[in-house]
Design a protein that fits this description.
The structure holds two protein chains of two kinds. By secondary structure, chain A is mainly α. Chain A is built from three helices and no strands. The longest helix of chain A is centred in the last third of the chain and has 31 residues. Chain B has a domain of 196 residues. Helix content of chain B is 75%, strand content 3%. The radius of gyration of chain B is 22 Å and the shape is globular. The chains are: A mainly alpha, B mainly alpha.
């Protein structure tokens, strides 16, 4: 029997995996994937809350809209990554550090 | 959709329709190799003759068209706000709520966007950015900001927040030939997307407790729920996400780089529009959703969290601004510091309720005007073919160009909070209301922080008026663009009007 707690644990694991990865890794593509992971954690939480408390369908609607937003965000992020590659020849976030202070 | 709904949303609809129309017209004109020039070319620019007459003229026209559309939306919102014909609160589809707060937010966002595109005319041409993309993106991002001001369910909240932020990331990276612009966009994007994900998780937790998406129902549900750990965590995560957007310390790391790297009009947009919308939605979220006593008040409510953030933000922002050599970076840290002052007003709201909102909104208005004016002047100054962004470039600028120098002085003094300018009354209302409700410690710290900020604001004025330019070094020269002058004039009138006769704006 899968309960709400199981789903929430899954969502928390996804979220914190993504967060840890974002904070530790310096590759922009990995950072992008980690952000997606964090958002997916939130989506799992939204959907499972909705599944166990079907008062409205808001959680599922939010998830659908959120997936579209995540796709748009990835498009912008990849465009920036391509431009970064043009300047540095790689997509490491710590190589771009012209501005300081 | 009734007529009232339509009228209430008209500022957003005007801008959205204008942006879509601009994209199509631009595509068609590019195909036929013409520009919209003959239609809108009314203000000519003097000064250095542009190399490519046609693309220069089209750049000017596009800026004028988009500034006009955004300005029209700002005027419509102002009329709706002043007139109050809408008669209270209009709910739209359970997602949007157009009330006084939202209308004021509409006005500020549209005005900020309008000034940003007005000052962009010459600049975009100079940095060879694609203005055919710049203006529609700016307008759509403004739409997102306005929807954010009016959002009353968390679905709309997140959607609008992302619409605004994605536009702002694109604007920051618009200067594709510049490594700094890309670096700024990358940092802004990564931090912003990270913050959005955190905020989304917080919203999911709050949704889990209540099972509804509308702010009002959520607030009622949470008030009954008390202080459960997941609710507290959800509230904290949402606050962290919003703190990223308003660039409160310690979530400010992206701000200086994004502000410095972005094209100057985009910087002005970020400082004015993004910040305003984020603060408006913060006011709404805190006053509607997290109202329950234990969630709001001390010792663990949002008021205490934000009070700590406010103090950190004011002092860190002002201290870091002291040593900056680049004027855009200095204004970035100054904008962080201003977020700190505004947070004091937000904290006061947990005791004063709606009354504290007026002060915050007035401050946002005053800051927007002064900030847009200062960035317009930075935008207008060029040095040997490139933009003048070092503070040293402005040596003697005020002597050579007394009117522009005086205007810049007024904007900086307004940010510092010199009477009788707008910024003074902004600070006065926020600090006075804090003292009135027993938060005198915050008010005193805010005043000390303002005194620190005098050093770098007045420092720029001293450089402009009392330092001679070094021999042989290129000096900052203003471009003669009617539109930038118009942007500066509008900002100047607002700063003086808000300061000398603030009563109509305080309702």
């Amino acid at each position: 029997m899968i309960t709400l707690s199981h789903c929430l644990v899954l969502s928390a694991v996804l979220f914190f995996t993504g967060m840890t990865g974002f904070l530790l890794r310096r590759n922009m593509l990995v950072s992008l994937m980690c952000i997606e992971l964090m958002m997916n954690g939130a989506f799992v939480a939204l959907v499972s809350y909705n599944r166990f408390n079907p008062l409205t369908q808001d959680g599922q609607v939010m998830t659908l809209i959120g997936i579209v937003i995540a796709a748009a965000e990835a498009a912008v992020g990849l465009a920036i990554a391509v431009n970064l590659y043009k300047f540095t020849g790689e997509v490491r976030t710590d190589r771009a550090s012209e501005m300081k202070g | 959709m009734t007529l009232t709904t339509f009228i209430a949303l008209s500022p957003i609809l005007i801008i959205a329709a204008g942006a879509v129309a601009m994209i199509f017209v631009d595509a068609l004109l590019q195909k036929s190799g013409k520009t919209a020039g003959s239609l809108f070319r009314s203000i000519h620019t003097k000064g250095e003759p542009p190399v490519d007459e046609i693309s220069y003229a089209s750049s000017i026209d596009r800026a004028l068209v988009s500034a006009t559309i955004l300005g029209a939306a700002a005027i419509v919102s102002a009329v709706l706000w002043f007139g109050g014909q809408l008669g209270g609160v209009i709910e739209i589809g359970g997602a949007l709520q157009v009330d006084k707060l939202a209308l004021f937010g509409f006005m500020l966002c549209a005005l900020g966007g309008s000034l940003a595109s007005l000052m962009s005319s010459h600049h975009l041409y100079e940095i060879k950015a694609d203005e055919g993309q710049f203006h529609p993106v700016l307008m759509l991002a403004t739409c997102g900001a306005m929807l954010l001001c009016a959002s009353s369910s968390f679905i709309m909240f997140f959607l609008a927040l992302e619409t605004m932020s994605l536009g702002a990331y694109i604007l920051t990276g618009m200067r594709r030939a510049s490594p700094r612009s890309t670096e700024g966009a990358m940092k802004y994007f990564l931090m912003g997307a990270f913050a959005s994900a955190i905020l989304l998780y917080g919203l999911a937790l709050l949704y889990g407790e209540t099972g509804v998406s509308s702010f009002e129902a959520m607030g009622k549900g949470l008030a009954g729920a008390g202080a459960k750990p997941l609710v507290m965590l959800g509230g904290v995560l949402v606050l962290v996400g919003l703190a990223f957007k308003v660039s409160a310390v310690p979530f400010h790391m992206w701000t200086p780089d994004a502000y410095q790297g972005a094209p100057t009009p985009a910087t002005s947009f970020m400082a004015a529009v993004v910040k305003t919308a984020a603060f408006v939605v913060m006011l709404r979220f805190l006053s509607v959703v997290l109202t329950g006593g234990i969630l709001a008040g001390p010792p663990f409510g949002w008021a205490s969290v934000l009070a700590v953030l406010a103090v950190l933000t004011m002092f860190w922002g002002n201290m870091a601004a002291l040593k900056q050599k680049n004027i855009k970076r200095m204004l970035a840290f100054s904008s962080i510091a201003h977020a700190g002052y505004i947070l004091i007003g937000v904290v006061t709201m947990h005791k004063a309720g709606e009354a504290a909102m007026a002060g915050v909104l007035y401050y946002l208005f005053a800051y927007l005007a002064a900030n847009a004016g200062a960035f317009a002047i930075v935008c207008s100054a060029v040095k040997g073919g490139s933009e003048a962004t070092d503070i040293d470039d402005y040596r003697g600028f005020g002597r050579r160009h007394p009117l522009l120098g005086a205007a810049m002085g007024i904007f900086l003094l307004s940010m510092l909070g010199m009477p009788p300018l707008a910024g003074f009354f902004g600070k006065l209302y926020i600090f006075a209301s804090a003292v009135e409700h027993g938060l005198w410690l915050l008010a005193v710290l805010g005043m000390i922080a303002s005194v620190v900020s005098a050093y770098y604001y007045i420092g720029v004025i001293v450089v402009m008026f009392m330092r001679e330019s070094e021999e042989g070094k290129p000096v900052a020269v203003p471009v003669r663009s009617g539109q930038i002058i118009a942007a500066i004039l509008v900002a100047l009138i607002l700063v003086l009007q808000l300061g000398l006769y603030p009563t109509p704006w305080l309702r």
